[in-house]
């Protein structure tokens, strides 16, 4: 029974790998051309699928880590209380320059 489950798991992995290679756009495949990846996955079922997952699949785009503002630093001029006070003073005509 365990052998049947392992066999089904390997078959599922092989089919997933093959489907993934076939549906991946040609320009996103890494390292070798897409037809060669198909041959590798078909002819070497387990190892070919593992190598495809590690070396052939397109990499997911990585987003840059957001850099939070420093502690107590305003995010923009409209968040800076000193700037807003100065702006209010200038709009009222209390500018002493």
From TrEMBL:
Chain positions covered by the region annotation Disordered: 60-97
Primary subcellular site in the record, as a coarse category: membrane
Residue ranges crossing the lipid bilayer per the database entry: 35-54
Cell membrane found in the keyword field: yes
Compartments in which it is found: Cell membrane
Lipid bilayer topology: Multi-pass membrane protein
InterPro entries, A to Z: CLS_N
Biased composition (Basic and acidic residues): 76-97
Cardiolipin synthase N-terminal domain ranges (all copies): 12-57
Protein name, as recorded: Putative membrane protein
Matches recorded under Pfam families: PLDc_N
Alphabetical keyword list: Cell membrane, Membrane, Transmembrane, Transmembrane helix
Source taxonomy: Bacteria, Bacillati, Actinomycetota, Actinomycetes, Streptosporangiales
GO cellular component terms, semicolon-separated: plasma membrane
